[in-house]
Design goal:
about 0% strand
């Protein structure tokens, strides 16, 4: 019967409009994800322009984007379900363009951090609505493929951020990595008005819990602050302990409100789906080392090997290409009931690749023998696991819950990303600031441990494909 079901799924035709909707929304979210990693390769350039600013302060230009997106994704999913996903998607991409313009014109670090936060508002409105707009256009039997393509494009965006950003920075400076978003927005808005179809969810929004939004944002900000400043202030200092305790308290309050509110921000009912809850936790634990890798790899090339921005960016180009190709293949395999082994094997490959970097990379630049082979293994692993995790989370979720479920899953991803950058800076310490290989070795060992934990957790907790949701 399983073989017959697989054959039937493969024979179901996908309407052309479905592919148009998927490509258009994926193109929009490409730049949202792209802007979450593109500053990694430009970090050193911005640091030189704003001389005298501490690296932990400048890191908020990265983490403010991730924190803002993570804090608003849940609200964005509910707003989209209430007011219309197409409308919210188009409004979100317009806000994203406004933030991009401001970031490119930033006269100081404070203004850059603020405009990155504005970007995050637009990104939060766009990303959960993108797949929610495209997925209903696909037959149910082919939705895993659609999610796989959507996820592979997201993975490609994250990987291409550093190398493409390096080219843009080399040609016009770091400000142009924000200016190039604007013409893309115009194209997506014009085509989106014609191609995308409006849809809504079942929420009435009569008493939507707005209090949880600032509470969640403060909690995430405190957690990030504690990780970033832990070494400088002292991990046992009252300030750092206060940050972590405050983060836990705010998080608990949000969960408690969500359990009793008639229109909660966090829909706890979707966590009754064992696949969703397991895959979302794995998404967090995986994206932490993923973000740490994209931050540390180009920075290592620039500060330890003393390569230019352009050379550093293109040095990591093979990895996102491998990710995209592998993720596309993994999307087809996931339709055949192989989600669990694909993800477990992929995360294991990521860990092997990062361990190889920690063992073999040193101050003497040897790209072909010491970097590329392990970066390729890492790329294969991330291509197998990153986008497939999204499909794993959304299996069995009702159509009307797409926006909320995807927003929740993406929140786990963004929180992991913010923590990954913060943790990498904290673990590297002064050795990383000074351009010492030892600081980066410590970072990669920690990232590999996280990868191993993720693989083990997912392998032992995610139900078998044929099992019913718990």
């Amino acid at each position: 019967m399983q073989a017959g079901a697989v054959g039937a799924a493969q024979e179901v035709a996908v309407p052309r409009r479905a592919w148009y909707a998927l490509m258009l929304t994926s193109f929009g979210q490409f730049f949202v994800i792209f802007d979450s990693t593109v500053l990694n390769v430009g970090f050193a350039s911005i640091e030189r322009d704003f001389s005298g600013v501490a690296r932990t302060t400048l890191a908020w230009a990265l983490t403010s984007y991730s924190i803002g997106t993570a804090s608003l994704l849940l609200l964005a999913g509910r707003i989209a379900d209430l007011f219309g996903r197409k409308r919210v998607f188009l409004v979100g991409i317009s806000i994203f363009a406004l933030g991009s313009l401001g970031a490119g014109l930033s006269p100081n670090v404070g203004f850059l951090i603020a405009t990155r936060a504005i970007q995050s508002v637009g990104g939060a409105l766009m990303v959960p609505t993108s797949i929610a707009l495209a997925l209903p256009e696909f037959p149910p039997e082919r939705r895993s493929l659609a999610v796989g393509v959507w996820g592979s494009i997201a993975a490609l965006a994250g990987g291409l951020g550093p190398p493409l950003g390096a080219g843009v920075i080399e040609l016009g400076g770091w400000r142009w990595i924000f200016f190039i978003n604007i013409p893309v927005v115009v194209i997506v808005v014009v085509l989106g008005r014609k191609v995308l179809r409006e849809s809504k969810g079942s929420s009435t929004g009569a008493r939507l819990d707005m209090v949880s939004v600032p509470l969640g944002t403060i909690g995430l900000a405190l957690l990030t602050l504690g990780v970033l400043e832990g070494e400088k202030w002292g991990w046992t200092s009252p300030s750092i302990i206060g940050c972590f305790v405050g983060a836990v308290v705010f998080g608990v309050v949000v969960v408690r409100r969500s359990s009793t509110h008639s229109e909660p921000l966090l829909d706890l009912s979707i966590f009754r789906h064992r696949r969703f809850s397991t895959a979302s936790i794995a998404t967090f634990t995986l994206n932490l080392p993923v973000a740490g890798f994209w931050f540390s790899a180009p920075l290592f090339c620039q500060t330890v090997w003393h390569w230019s921005v352009l050379k550093s960016g293109f040095a990591i180009m093979p990895t996102p290409v491998i990710i995209f190709v592998t993720a596309t293949i993994a999307g087809r395999w996931s339709d055949r009931g192989l989600i669990k082994p694909i993800i477990a094997a992929g995360v294991a490959c990521c860990a092997v690749g990062i361990v190889g970097l920690a063992i073999f990379l040193d101050a003497e630049a040897n790209y072909w023998a010491h970097y590329l082979p392990f970066a390729a293994i890492y790329g294969v692993g991330l291509g197998l696991s990153w986008s497939t995790l999204t499909a794993a989370a959304l299996i069995g979720i009702d159509h009307e819950k797409f926006g909320v479920a995807n927003g929740t899953n993406l929140t786990f991803r963004q929180v992991g990303g913010a923590m990954g950058v913060a943790m990498s800076i904290a673990v590297a310490g002064q050795a990383g600031v000074a351009g010492s290989a030892s600081g980066f070795h410590r970072v990669w060992v920690v990232l590999a441990v996280w990868m191993v934990f993720t693989a083990a957790f997912f392998l032992f907790t995610y139900p078998r494909q044929e099992a019913l949701d718990a």
